[in-house]
Amino acid sequence: EVSVLKSKTDELAELDKKHFIHPTSAPKKGAQDGPDIIFSDGQGIFANNLEGEAYIDGMSMLWNVNIGHGQKELAEAANEQMLKIAYSSAFKGFSNVPAIKLAEKLASIAPGDLNSVFYTSGGSESNDTAFKLSRFYWSLKGKHEKKKIIAMRDGYHGVTQAAQSATGIPTTHEFAGASVEGFYHATPHLTNCELGDKNDPNYEQSIRYLIEKEGADTIAAVIIEPVQGAGGVNIPPEGYLQAVRKLCDEFNILFIADEVICGFGRTGKMFGVENWEVVPDLMCIAKGITSGYSQLGGVMISDTVREAIVNYEGVMAHGFTYSGHPTACAVALKNIEIIERDGIVENAKAMEKEMQKGLAYLEEKHDIIRNSRSIGLLAAFELYNSATGEHFDPSLQAATKVVDECFNRKLILRAIGDFRVAIAPPLVINKQEINDMIHIIDE
Ligand code: PLP
């Protein structure tokens, strides 16, 4: 039977090589070597290949399978809704039951006065929507010049043209050349600068400096991930997000929180901003909203922004075919029900300590592992050349090597750039399973 499954894998791999252009992948390698793995099924923190070999999904795939794999209740919720009506439009006066119920649920769990939602199909669409909503909001207020967006270096916001323009990771700009204008990047986590200390030597990289240079009258919004994910799992120092919130208030600029990774429990709170008790004006969500069981995203909108929008008598010409998709919304509702019922956020918080212990152990034992950090179940460590005390030379591809070796031992992690490795397992993970991951990294 094993050889039958093996030949099935080989057959599919050939087809993949020929016909499947993979997202965010090296196309030449894909066309030559085919996929590294073809997933077949999964359970909890495990994702299995076609031959039934179990891999620990130490990244929740793309930081999104928060409640873990194989949750039948989500399949049943989708099935039930599909049998009723799988899809209906939400344009111009049409609505549906799951989209309404989910909107109410999201309003009840989102921080502060984020009481309305605009649905999308994912994170990039959510961010593009937030930029457009910001500009729309200011033009409704008669401030037609407020169009620019300030984002952060190392921030990741997606791959649609505007989301990519906001993204502050240079390699993501290589693929298609020039992007949308009007996006500026500040260096994150310079708390003193954000607080207004012009004597700080980093002042010219701060958000405040950019606002003053470009003029607050031209800036619509600042977008920040509460904890940067794809840019390296960068956790802000205490006081940072609060300082940015104050800055936005001072200059009449909207604060957009990109909670695409942080939302739905990843950082040990339902939403990342709750770690610093900050309430944004717009909050972008996706990924964990369905734990990946269906494609859904959204922008949560504050009452102030909502009030301006709902007083507009024209047509707001922005909407996706799948905005408010009934099946996706039914899946999200069930997913949030499970997150609350099973104490998934509480588990992420409880496991934070276990993850920190494991990372401390690795740092203690291996001189090449340094600068580890984590919040909830969002973690990373860096690889250093112990002889020089510097990061390894990029040509050595240290992070990729570590990730490949872990993969060979059936643990999925993710390399970020040349020397950082991210860990973000499903939030249902237990102590023993965290120790199993640490043990493999240790090897
Ligand atoms: N924002 C953040 C913080 C992300 O991590 C991602 C994806 O990784 C996105 C936005 C883009 O989301 P999507 O890939 O669903 O378009």
TrEMBL record:
Domain of life: Bacteria
Organism name: Oceanobacillus indicireducens
Cross-referenced CDD domains: OAT_like
Record has Transferase as a keyword: yes
PANTHER family, per database record: AMINOTRANSFERASE, AMINOTRANSFERASE CLASS-III
Entry's family note: Belongs to the class-III pyridoxal-phosphate-dependent aminotransferase family.
Name of the protein described by the UniProt record: Aspartate aminotransferase family protein
Record keywords: Aminotransferase, Pyridoxal phosphate, Transferase
PROSITE patterns reported in the protein's UniProt record: AA_TRANSFER_CLASS_3
Any Pfam family the entry gives: Aminotran_3
MF terms (GO), sorted A to Z: pyridoxal phosphate binding; transaminase activity
